[in-house]
Amino acid sequence: MTDSKRLILVFGATGQQGGSVAAALLKAGWAVRALVRDPASDKSVALREAGAHIVQGDFGDAASLRAAMQGVHGVFSVQPSSPGGTVSDDDEIRFGIAIADLARECGVAHLVYSSVASVEAGVGLGHFESKARIEAHIRTLPIEATIIRPSSFMEMLVMPGFGLDSGSFNFFMQPDQPVGLLAVADIGKCVAAVFADPARFAGATLELAGDTVTGSELAALFTHAAGHPITYARFPDDVLAANPFLRKLTDMLDRAQVPDANALADLRRINPDMQSMRTWLAGDGRTAFRAALGASGAWAYNQQ
Ligand SMILES: NC(=O)c1ccc[n+]([C@@H]2O[C@H](COP(=O)([O-])OP(=O)(O)OC[C@H]3O[C@@H](n4cnc5c(N)ncnc54)[C@H](OP(=O)(O)O)[C@@H]3O)[C@@H](O)[C@H]2O)c1
To answer: Exposure of 292 by Cβ count < 10 A (0-12 exposed, 13-18 middle, 19+ buried)?
Structure first.
């Protein structure tokens, strides 16, 4: 049950996760305060027009975080990470811990922290180890907290550089190896369900996925959606050998547990709208997928 009189502070609301959370909370009747760096940006203006209350601040400015937390019932915490963003792993840890500490200090009733799926499998990956550190810190605090761990975003698959434009898609898993995937819009719906039922979700850690697909299944789904053949192969060995970051992500996925059918069904009870890869390709992801078919270029994070 939601309470429109109670306020949730959403970080990163101009980004993917925070944007999804702000939209879902507003739709569910919560009041939303969004801390943004630039209140005049197009995304901040759109958030205000959607009904959020905008406050200016920065993860690195504790006074702005403390001011934003006054009078809020809940906080949704997400930080950008290396390697694609402008933050270091130490920054991410510092920001995530500062937000959790301030939430406790300010008497916030429910903190939801967004980590990453299979965080334990991310040994050697800075942006996984950072989240493991933040999770561990939150568990030491006397605050009702829920940790969500989103799987790889379906939106990531249609970024340039994976070969959709050439009809031969490369990604991290083997053709017969399943990976968990999640539509960004479903993060917000899950988080709204978490804030609505603190008795159930306080203290919980939720691995979020809407679907699991193997490389071969992905090829079939892409082929169907494109209307022409798209093949699948894991990144070639020479590419992985030349790129330690891709290699580490691939190794992480080899170690990662994927949710089974029961876990996916449980998540669907939390968020009945949870999208499969098939429904996402036909709906939320349709435009981005069509664009990716004609977009060449390198993956933004394809760095060493
Ligand atoms: N991609 C995946 O498949 C995946 C899966 C699981 C987890 N993750 C994790 O998701 C996280 C990123 O989430 P996202 O994709 O939602 O990020 P995003 O779309 O890049 O958005 C980042 C948000 O953080 C805000 N921000 C950046 N620096 C800030 C600062 N110094 N002070 C205040 N706000 C600041 C940005 O606001 P501005 O408008 O001011 O820039 C923006 O709203 C990363 O930690 C990543 O590891 C990713």
So the answer is: buried
